[in-house]
Amino acid sequence: MSRTPRLNCIIPPYLLRRLLESEQSEVRQAALDTMLTTARLRGQREVRASFAGAAAPGNGRRTVFDCEERNFLQAAVMARSEDGPDSVDESTNRAFDGLGLTRDFFKEVFQRDSIDGRGMRLDGFVHFGVKFNNAFWDGRQMVFGDGDGKVLGDLTGSLDVIAHELTHGVTEHTAGFEYHNQSGALNESVSDVFGSLVKQWSLKQAAEEADWLIGADVWTPGIDADALRSMKAPGHAYNNPLFGKDPQPDRMSKFIHLPDTDEGDNGGVHLNSGIPNKAFYLTAVGIGGFAWETAGPIWFEALKVSGPEAQFHEFAHTTFQKAGELFGVGSAEQSAVLGAWQEVEISIKGVPTGAARARSRAVDGNGGFGRQDGLAALNKQIGELSAKVAALAKEMNALKAHR
Predict the structure, then answer these.
(1) What is the CA 111 to chain-centroid distance, rounded?
(2) Fewest CB atoms within 10 A around its CB: which of 113, 246, 350, 376?
(3) pLDDT for res 369
(4) pLDDT number for residue 363
């Protein structure tokens, strides 16, 4: 089992391959260059060693470097530091602000000191390469391309993209989900979850108000697409002639089996992440309110105790347990977790498959469900029965007293 950090890219390989079929030569060339550069970076065993000491503790201090359209991080120049003034370059400022919002979210919501929990410095690199159609976390730093300008724009433009990539670092320092098959899909899903939560937290949006889109700002205005992915409706983020229809599944019966290779997206990690993504969305809207205060802590606590090769059903069971620990066994929050996983056809160990479905539920237009379901309804029944038993016992005692 390898715990070597991976090159985690926001733009999945199947989208870049579709760009190779574009009628525009500039788009085809940018996609080819991006794929070749990404392959080269993946092949470098020490891709993270560009700045000595970059991962050392530093109170989460931010530094953004400008690659000036070169492919070598070592040649980048400092563009903005924690104590320095704003840059004249908007990409630098967006990267700097995104790093800070993500750091502050984990600090304020989960009391986590930067990405590794020990004050890790946050280094970002902008203007990487020429028309580089991606952004990635390489295990040590965050790197942004400018996009080709035709299909993809500047990758610093989406806060949830920045938070998504940095969360890969959080996962490395907690569960360490292996980046392939189901554990890899969990790795991607966790990044989508907290990427979305950082955006919601920054906007102070309740779960019902959020768009639940990942990468809504990466496309240029001329592209007919909502986002890279939709947590609310996996498989519906885009549908156009350039990319075709969003292939993400939203339940286990639609799970996509692909080769565990770079070309196969490491077993479909960017595709099958739609299944746990939908489970989190359903949990969040099922509970209601601010998702970072309820569903977020459940997922975060589950992440901290999960193993590197966790499968969907194992992670589902862990979230169910953590919901009980945080909010009470049989609570509305735990019932929401149970119902969400069963909705995407993943059962919880030790809980009958139909338990959550046999609930009294108020279904909303988005497929969410009310707070009263599953174990909560069962516990209510048990409570009512206990009250009746107690009342009966009181009556029996009264009769004995009058004998």
Answers:
(1) 19
(2) 350
(3) 42
(4) 34
> Helix 181-203 crosses helix 295-305 at what angle (to 10 degrees)?
140
3-state secondary structure of 285: helix
CB neighbours (10 Å) of residue 385? 10
The radius of gyration of the chain from alpha carbons, rounded to an integer in Å, stands at 23
What single-letter amino acid sits at 194? F
Q: Which residues are known to be catalytic? A: 165, 270
CATH homologous superfamily for the domain 179-403: Neutral Protease Domain 2 (1.10.390.10)
Q: Residue 257: how many CB atoms within 10 A of its CB?
A: 9
Separation between Cα atoms, residue 188 and residue 382, nearest integer Å = 39
Domain borders along the chain are 1-44+53-173, 179-403
- E-strand ranges in 267-372 read none
Residues of the chain scoring pLDDT < 70: 1-5, 44-57, 353-403
249 to each of 242, 278, 279, 356, how far by Cα in Å? 20, 9, 12, 22
- Which CATH architecture does the domain made up of 1-44+53-173 adopt? Roll (3.10)
CA distances in angstroms from 238 to 122, 139, 185, listed in the order given: 32, 30, 20
Closest listed residue to residue 167, CA positions, set 292, 288, 39: 292
pTM for this entry: 0.86
Measured distance CA(149)–CA(160) in Å, rounded:
20
On the question of a common fold for 1-44+53-173 and 179-403, the answer reads no
Reference 122, options 170, 178, 70, 71; nearest CA is 170
Q: Are strands 122-126 and 213-214 parallel, antiparallel or unpaired?
A: unpaired
Give backbone dihedrals phi and psi of 214, rounded to 5 degrees, phi first. Answer: -110, 120
Read off the amino acid at residue 198: V
User: What does the pLDDT look like over 15-48, one tens digit per residue?
Assistant: 999 999 999 999 999 999 999 999 988 876 444 4
pLDDT (tens digit per residue) in 53-106: 344 557 899 999 999 999 999 999 999 999 999 999 999 999 999 999 999 999
Q: Is 215 left (phi over 0), alpha (psi -120 to 50) or beta?
A: left
Contacts of residues 319-326 at CB distance under 8 Å and 24 or more positions apart, as own/partner, are 319/283, 320/348, 320/351, 322/297, 322/298, 323/298, 325/301, 326/297, 326/298, 326/301
